[in-house]
Amino acid sequence: MNPRVKPTWTADDSARLYGIRDWGAGYFDLNAQGEVAVKVAFPTGGVTVSLMDIVSGIAQRGHAMPVLLRIENLLDAQIALLNDAFRRAIAEAGYRGEYRGVFPIKVNQQAQVIEEIVHFGARYRHGLEAGSKAELVLALAALGEGDLLICNGYKDREFIDLGLWAQKLGIRCFFVIESPSELPVILERSRALGIKPLIGARVKVSAKVGGLWTETSGDRSSFGLSTTQLIAVLDTLKQEEMLDCLQLLHCHLGSQIPDIQDIRAGVLEACRYYADLIREGAPLGTLDLGGGLAVDYVGSRANDVHSRNYTLDEYCADIVEVVMSTLDPQGIAHPQLVTESGRATVAYSSLLLFNILDVTHFEAVDLPTSPPDGGHELVRNLFRVRDDLATTDLQESYNDALYWRDEIRELFKRGQISLRERSLGENLFLAVAQSIAGRLDTLARVPAGLQGLAESLADIYYGNFSVFQSLPDTWAIGQIFPVMPIHRHLEPPRRQVIISDLTCDCDGKLDNFIDARGERKTLPLHPLNPGEEYLIGVFLMGAYQETLGDLHNLFGDTHVVSVRINQDGSFDVMKEIAGDSIADVLSYVEYQPQALFESLRSSAEAAVRKGTIDIGERQRLLEEYAASLRGYTYFER
To answer: For 299, how many CA atoms within 13 A lie in the half-sphere containing its CB?
Structure first.
């Protein structure tokens, strides 16, 4: 869709252009005012609240952009959807076991997130998965009697002791053996403390899955036991007369798996392991299938790394069906099913909001109608290319313009052409290129040499955020998140844009976006209005981004605001966490802010003695420096 040729523009046009009704999963849409709104279901009906209203409430509470916004209702909704979908699948298939979900803490360790998962998930007995001692420590404080805790990752003595004490407190804490070296320590510590452990064994399924994280599955995956190692663990437990402790089989199918057939293949292989371990005498009873449930970031419902070709109901039904069809013929009781869906649980609940600060346009400005008297021949050549565009081949015209521009640059380097003439030549080239790019839509086939021309002329919008702090996966692995303005959707977005962040780094940008046909290199945005903030939202970013962020250019954490939408359409700000101050981020990299202040104070005092500043200027300098230490690391109006 080309917004420039449509005489009128509606919110429905914007919804199609940005795909919000595809990736929004019913949580996000556009309202009649052309603003992005969040939709929450209540027993009495759905409620819609504009993000612009939430932004206004955030601003009134003193929080400037950028802001990480968490919507607690959406976190609750995803927990409910997952558990209810498995319950339906179990009931419809006649499955004789239950489902217990656990949330992998590594996906989002933020206290507000974990507290809400434990609080709301209590009605489903939704547990946690810990992969480190720090995660285990917070899990022990969060969970209670009867709750499920899966312990993955490498485990030292201290880790194992804490897990054994958790079991003594009534938490069903499983030690999942990732390496044979862990088993002797588990057995030794269980004897020392007199606490019998609950043991799980993680096996490597040979089936490789598609997506960005294929290395988490298959023979070369970092974690899990080979078949030989699994047999060794089994035999050791038999020899120690502790085989009854092996009550869980863990098979991590993968992460963000786009194809349901890969999931079915992984579950089938896991069931084969499960059946043979039962025949070996292991009691088991629980089958943990790890992660894999994908988020459809692009809304295409396809076998694509950023999408998935299945629904949640299909995912649950297929797991139940494969387990039953594999175990029933062997007369094996249906195990308790566990999945560790992290991404699908938290992705929707968090979004990044930021304002646009400035723009760079790549287009001609103030061009004369004819060459100036005495102008260089190369500049006159570019004027002829511009004036003859209507009657010449577009590829040929572009080749000529590119050649003359590059010649002008070479002459400038040798001092044979002036700065003003070079500027005029660059301006003429942009005029030619823009004119050609504007006509490409009329061609049946775009010549190879002109493909990508429109992208090379896209505006650069400068956003008040850091890719490396808030959206590290876009830089590290090419993850795509939905990006769109949160207002002005009754106007056509006439500019093609890439978004640059505030960091001094060429990688600090967003230049891959969602399109109705897949992916695109530019994002349609509106021209900036003088004196008016233009606000952008990055959606579905609740998984990993808050934890992976780094301090590139010493940009710290953004402000964080959690809201809960009420049944009457109002919203409550539940929690507010101020973003990092400059003093905060300096302390993270081992500076002492007070020592920095004292060092500057000494320098200022020395300048007073030299007479280069007076006492009043000294005071203003120190006051501004102190205010900067207390201030936000991001741009402030």
So the answer is: 25
